[in-house]
Amino acid sequence: MSGIIINDAIVLVSTIQDHARRQSIAASAVAGARDRLRPILLTTLTTVLGLAPLMYESSRQALFLKPTVVTLVYGLSVGFFAVLLLVPALLMIQSDLSRGVGTLRKVLVGRRFNHRFRSAVAGIVVAVLALNTAILGPWVVTGNAVVPLELWGAKWVTFSAGAASLVWAVTLTLLLIALFAATSGILIQRSRQ
């Protein structure tokens, strides 16, 4: 079952990449899924329909094979939709992320922004990593979040995962607002010069 699904995904990715040489990634994802729909559907249907009689057989010998048949039938049915929907979507997401990372790399390495902007971005990245380590690290390892509140006179405080995720989300939002403010300030200062 996994071999069929993986093979379908590999051939679909190859088809999408062939189309991507001539057109955008979104159009190539649609064209690749359209081109591979019939072969993937026929592969799935022949296997599922070939195993269908075993699903409804009631003899003792068939009862031994029924769990395997049910697993294969439902696995291939779900895999059919996963290959045709998730693989093109993930390829488009990958393309968008690679463009964004490339642009960010040009901004951070290029000469357009000064040292203060790079320092602000590096500080925000370090703060986000520290936030993830401090709040999400213990939550992932132990199931409870331990946050150091000694700065406000409290000892180590343990609270629920929901509260930890709320603290994480609020702090992350504040850090992103700080990054936006730093970027805006630098750009406004630059436009005045």
From TrEMBL:
Domain of life: Bacteria
Keywords: Membrane, Transmembrane, Transmembrane helix
Pfam families recorded: ACR_tran (PF00873)
Transmembrane segments: 40-56, 68-91, 120-141, 161-188
InterPro entries named among the record's database cross-references: Acrflvin-R (IPR001036)
GO molecular function: xenobiotic transmembrane transporter activity
GO CC annotations on file: plasma membrane
Protein name listed in UniProt: AcrB/AcrD/AcrF family protein
